[in-house]
User: Fold this.
Amino acid sequence: MNKDLSISLRVSFFTLLLTGIFYPYVITEVSNLIFHHKAKGSLLYDENKTVVGSELIAQFFQSKVYFHPRPSAAGKGYDGLASGASNDSPTSKKFISRVEMTTKDLKKNNDERIPIDLVTTSASGLDPHITPEAAKWQAPQIALARDISLRRVLSIVTDNTQYPQLGLLGSARVNVLKLNVALDQFFGPPVGLK
Amino acid sequence: MTLNDWLQIGFFFLILLILTKPVGLYLYAIYEKKPLPKILGPFEKRVFTLCGINPQEQDWKAYATSLLIFNVLGIFIVFIIESLQPLLPLNPQNLPSVPWDLALNTAVSFVTNTNWQAYSGETTMSYFTQMSALTWQNFLSASTGMTAFLALARGLTRHSTEGDKITLGNFWVDLLRSALYVFLPASILFALILVSQGVIQNFDPALEITTLEGAKQTLAMGPVASQEAIKILGTNGGGFFNANSAHPFENPTPFTNFLQIICFLLIPAGLTYTFGKMAHDKKHGWSIFSVMFFLAISGAFLTTYFESQPNPLLNALPISHDQGNMEGKEVRFGVAGSSLFASLTTDTSCGANNASHDCFTPLGGLVLMTNILLGEIVFGGVGSGLFGMLLYVIISVFLAGLMVGRTPEYLGKKIEGKEVRLIVLYVALYPIIILLGTSASLLSSIGLSSLNNTGPHGLSEVLYAFSSTAQNNGSAFSGLNANTLWYNLFFSFEMFVGRFLPILLGLAIAGSMVRKKAVIASSGTFETKGFLFICLLIGVIITIGALTYFPVLTLGPITEQIFSQIGRTF
Assistant:
């Protein structure tokens, strides 16, 4: 018994130093050396070198000149410190009425059937992507708000579409923040904002 | 289901099949080949001297004592680190100490390899706690699982001439070899691959940014990749962030998603091959692998099928349902990547999740719950999965023996009254602690006040939580607010008993089996490998695992499904 306890203490101390402190430090040092950009959060910068966000984390967009991400259940919405899903059951009144509300709001913009990712919350609440269908569905409204041709908006969507990795893994997707940054680059930032 | 869904699932299982043998051979070399490869031997000796370990073999009682003392001490250390968090370094968000009931729950949870989380990582745990307490126990609880398996496997496979062998190996040797030669090198490699794809790894404080529209947003930071790697490889499953593997900083691309699923199955699958080698007959290993493989594939297809169905309650709305049930799922994974992950994370005791299981369709959720209730033996946790499966093998052999009227034997050793009594305890344990816990919570107002959903789904939330903690899975129908005194303490009990009582029973069986003389198989011996045995084992697992819970599953997910078909909401 006593011998086991003494060994337990020593093994704990040794493994804690090795796997709990040394290992994470080494991984941090090495990653910052070879994958600096990714290890720090894949941040995107504007022309003045200020951070506008992380390409991996969705941010809130409400202006009509921007593409909108999926609804978010993270905190009060897109809270980077409160990731999480709605956890509403598919048969709950709460869920059904929320989807009805979102659908009603969105329907004003486009009469076509709404891709389901635009009316449902994601698992993290920070999903940076929408489907290409969802981007195309939003395109007419953006073309109208920016007073540019629909064709140009659609071509930016196509340029920013990522296809399944290795042609197999995952779904086709568009990164909303990168898409909006691209819009601003081509057509200038909207007046009145920033 | 689209063609791409089928291809993704098929491709995944193909890769798993290919990797099983090489991983199994490596594990065999680490644990059973003597002497160890060149550099490792002298290094290991130093560590043993440093820790005061005498690497002589232990009998089952000594082995079990070392295991228990080491793990209870682990709970104490994690608890203390959580409580002293504000006094310790690497706490840029100035987080206060973790409340005692939550700290206890988390300590038990990480030591038992459950990694149930009643907290959200971003706002509860400092970087130091995440690393030194949680990452550390991710390594050690996984290693403990391996030791339990090794002892049981040795008990079954060692040839003894009536009682001359009584030892099962040395706990400390098995533990340290698992941590140092299996999990650490694999984690280093995996962590770097994860960072290359976009998983973050830094000690920066949370980052305040101004969004493109000029609003403020705070991005959580931290040493994520190092914890993510062992969280997956050790079938731990406790996320750095609340959203776990759904968080883009934990699982940024479909490729990392694929790798994560492969990595939490890799060691449990490889171990079946290792077991075959230990039994000197690889067919035994492959037979067990086939059972696991069959159950895993069935679960994955069923989940993907149910999740790709549109929600009938949304039929009236002008929505295009092509993508299936996307509530609580990430676009980059889609229905296939989310369902595959969900089904396999509940098969293995990993319990990480890349989608909200609470938002799954009722029948999709039913599959996940059944996976857990089967006993975490469909690949299961590292070591602990095959450990549980071997106990099921013994039950099956016993039942077959009853049917043909002969003394049952496994690997030439007789299964007798003593072993069967211990195994019945093992079989009865889980239904008792899961169903009693669920009933107690549903009958108390404290238990009910934590529910996010009402109606049959509320029942599912509580049942899922008790199954997940007792079976050491750790995933959740996260709508249940588990951070209350009632659930924190109740679940601590479930996790502790659900982990260590079966290990004790299994080690006792190993201790009794190792003494037995192996008899030479005759024409009357029931074959414990091959197609007939595979079918028998699957039948026993489904009968014991799933049918026990059939009544309560009928009241939960099945009722919910029927109601959703007739348009009733809650």
Remarks:
- The radius of gyration of chain A is 22 Å.
- Chain A is about 45% helix and 10% strand.
- Residues 1-40 of chain A form one domain.
